[in-house]
Amino acid sequence: MSSSRLLLLFLVTLMLVGHSLAKTRHFKWEVGYIHWSTDGEESVVMGINGAFPGPTIRGRAGDIIVVELTNKLHTEGVVIHWHGIRQFGTPWADGTAAISQCAINAGETFVYRFKVDKAGTYFYHGHYGMQRSAGLYGSLIVDVAQGEREPFHYDGEFNLLLSDWWHKGSHEQEVDLSSNPMRWIGEPQTLLINGRGQYNCSMAAQFSNPRLPQCKLRGGEQYAPQILRVRPNKTYRLRLASTTALASLNLAIGGHKMVVVEADGNYVQPFSVQDIDIYSGESYSILFTTNQDPSKNYWISTSVRGREPNTPQALTLLNYLPNSPSKFPTLPPPIAPLWNDYNHSKSFSNKILALMGSPKPPIKNNRRIVLLNTQNKIDGYTKWAINNVSLVLPTTPYLGSIRYGINNAFDTRPPPDNFPRDYDVMKQAPNSNATYGNGVYMLKMNNTIDIILQNANALGKGASEIHPWHLHGHDFWVLGYGEGKFSDKDVKKFNLKNPPLRNTVVIYPYGWTALRFVTDNPGVWAFHCHIEPHLHMGMGVILAEGVHLVKNIPREALACGLTGKMLMTNKHN
Predict the structure, then answer these.
(1) pLDDT single digits (tens) 204-257
(2) Into which family does the record put it (predicted)?
(3) pTM of the model
(4) Digit-coded pLDDT (tens) for 517-561
(5) Secondary structure string (H, E, C) spanning 181-223
(6) Closest CA to 278 of 376, 366, 193
(7) Could you give the CA distance from residue 23 to residue 64 in angstroms, rounded to a whole number?
């Protein structure tokens, strides 16, 4: 047999072995409201199988995940989005109500089935109403395929899912945000680490400002912090994901440097930092080495960034064994950069570059879409809008209405690709009125698309907010960030050499962020601000590509609205 045939046989054998090692992992979940003490104050939270946060899903690249989800909420629908999983071939499993599927009605069961194709740190959360704010979330970890290795070494691993918590329920928050005049929900009462926080007390009371009483914890409470237990002189991987509804966060480990190695399921060129900014929807892996005084324990802290913080730090302990976890650190917790120190934040963002050997973006684009982010008024109601259109989702899921050519399901007029040239992003708009809409950006398959996210002044004078944007169904290259209003001359600043691949990216106040992706995944995909109140108030757009190529959509995914009527008609004919 020739050497070329032997090589081909070897490669085919490797593919078959890899396929045989992949597993189908089954989960059976019930979503319902439960009483839970997230921070010492009992609340009603949305749990899975009677617990909060939801169970961690763990698999290997190539595995099939099957989640049989039953809605036990009694009076409302539910869906779950698998954040960062691209859903190649299964766009109906993306878990976006009115976009990829119908909401799962009370008492009904829906089966999510999808492939986790790429190793990384991910999570899942509710994507219907403001159910993420109600606590519907959990971690999703994908290890490398059997026989493969990570491009870095570590001796142990921890996973931290970061979130924020209000004592006011998510339904009341929705009513507040939808009122005229709008009632802002305020800052969260507590920051949570793996669903645990401490309200009106501090583990580091002697250092707290303003002064808070010492938390009296025995260790068995639902809100007691999860301690990270480590051995001296070891290297640990710390997986981080932020499912916050509002807060941008900064995390630090007292006395320890961190090396960033992964962002949103993509390897990055390792770089060292003292602290890390993480925005809602982002995930990271960092490495740290336990090379400090082994007779001490150390604080791990998360703090609010990008908004004036009225929420205390969340704290837990890095416990050097064999020290007792009740031995508190002698130094105060790490102090975060000032909440509005955007230079610190931008410096961190600009350090994130793709690992050598990562895929590079196409040199040229086929289409550029510029999305202006503004706060507006519609009939007196406060809304967020993109190119002056505030998103209102239709009753029929886009995936079904586009796939089956159903008329009158959504506005077929294309939304604008840009905003007026004379719009001054640095000032209050002379006319703050916007309109509602649910049109779709129809994208050609296998095209290269550039999106420029353009921030602007909000309704208030001198106000411009951070917005972390998340794209479903794709990773994108982050080509660059800039100040002020984007112009054609800024294209020469794009990084085409080693831009990082992400699924979530931030736009800074009065700035722009440039993205590039390839339309290689047939489906209908949401692209939106990941701040829960902002999405609720209309801050998002819908992208569609190659929907005619989508096959094997489960009937139950589309059994509502006009597609539901169509399916029922076909069933009886």
Answers:
(1) 988 876 678 999 887 778 999 999 999 999 999 999 999 999 999 999 999 999
(2) Belongs to the multicopper oxidase family.
(3) 0.94
(4) 999 999 999 999 999 999 999 999 999 999 999 999 999 999 898
(5) CCCCCCCCCEEEECCECCCCCECCHHHCCCCCCECCCCCCCCC
(6) 193
(7) 6
